[in-house]
Amino acid sequence: MRSAISFGLAALIALGLTAAAAPAADALTGGTLVVGLDQEPPTLDPHASPSAVTYQIIASVTESLLYKGRDGKLVPWLAESWTSSPDGRSVTFKLRKDVKFHDGTPFNAEAVKANFDRIVDPKFKAGGARAQLAGYAGTKVLDEFTVQVSFETAYAPFVTYGAAGTLSMVSPKAVREMGDDVHKRPIGTGMFMVKEYVAKDHATIVRNPAYARKAPWSDRSGPAYLDAVVWKFIPEAGTRVTTLESGETQGIYLVPAQSLPRLEKNSGVRVEKMPWPGVPRIWLLNVTKPPLDDVKVRRAINHAVDKDAMLATVSKGIALRAFAPLTAVMLDDPALRQYYPFDPAKAKQLLGEAGWQPGADGVRAKGGQRLELVLNAIEYGGGVEPTVQLIQSSLHEVGVDVKIKAQARPPWYEDNYRCATHGPVMFLRASDPDGLYSLFHSSLVGANFNWSCVKNAKLDQLLADGRKESD
């Protein structure tokens, strides 16, 4: 069974490195914070985005029913309380009565229903949100501020997803009236509002002066201290670091590993290292595209790539090794460490057993066809990420010619949806192990994030069964 579901090359989980100018001793009112991001989001619509950077920008613009803190505990946010049914098929939320969207419309039970119904609408191109509402049976408005969200079967992770940015609330009126503009200016309930979005440059959010509540992550009630936050899109890593050092930005994300020692020596900079829960950086192998439809080829790839070398050279020792399609902070079972050790000889043996024999140019061939794979990679402005290059060089050593298809995010996503390449290198943040449902369930081929394009009935059943487990 292990070899039959070898769908990806799990490499490592890089720590989320954020650098910021050292804070002042006392909080100040007013001013603008400028933050440099490693990429531009495909959309700011929380229900449509497949990208984590969207939720960095709108984390204070849209709010969720619940909030999950760093301690892992769920606390109320837009919902005052919640109760799960004994059979695990529904959750009832009591909502706050003092919340309005930025356009002045009330946040209430009808708004929650409209948000969830929108996500599951087949005509709407949802991002990761749709997988989080798989099996959705509907939302029932019990009164103006009480809703019951139901599912076809028991669905334990839903309460956790109630704290996810993907299921955060946007104004139903704005969705109806704004059309495509909602992708650039979602209307939420948070302490900041989107002022402008300039493609390929920046997004600006400004303080919501009407915000009177206490956010669960704040130590005070009322509006934010800052007047505005400008999120600059700076894909080239070196340039991003330079903007921080020069003062052009006051924070950056992500910090390239090679720049970390220099920044840590800078007394004016604070670096935060945060392990990511979810799916590690992984090459999702498209099992429908030959020769990856042969499990021996997929297993060979896993043996051919030196993950420890990635830790040492790409991540400079600041990443945690993953031994499964979940990060080490989520799953670190010692029994998993025995699988797929770095073993080029084993990789060559498996490729030979699959009929791929060494060619004169060093690339293996079978029936006159060279062993070529197309890896879908994101172009970050200064080239593709080093992980992709290391995969390419490692596989060349065992006779596999990896062609890197470097492209901007929109066509990168489209190729993934169409299963057009041999798969992308990607990662997925998820607050629950149920993130594997998004990655491997058959219903999400052509959507987010089953980009290995696998359809396996036994695996589907295991993933569905996992959703019923409360522990």
Task: Report strand %.
Answer: 15-25%
Largest pleated sheet? 7 strands, mixed
Segments where pLDDT lies below 50 for 5+ residues?
Answer: 1-7, 10-16
Secondary structure tally: strands: 21
Category by helix and strand content: alpha+beta
**What separation lies between the terminal Cα atoms?**
24 Å
- State the CATH topology of the largest domain: Dipeptide-binding Protein, domain 3
Across the major sheet, the strand order is: 10-11-12-3-13-2-14
Description:
This protein is α+β, with helices and mostly antiparallel strands and 471 residues long. The chain has two domains: 3-14 and 277-466, Dipeptide-binding Protein, Domain 3 (Dipeptide-binding Protein, domain 3), CATH 3.10.105.10; 39-233, Periplasmic binding protein-like II (D-Maltodextrin-Binding Protein, domain 2, 3-Layer(aba) Sandwich), CATH 3.40.190.10. It is 24% helix and 24% strand. The strands form six sheets. It has a seven-stranded mixed beta sheet, sandwiched between helices. The chain has a four-stranded antiparallel beta sheet with strand order 16-1-15-21. Strands 6-7-9-8 form a four-stranded antiparallel beta sheet, with helices on one face. It is globular and about 70 Å long.
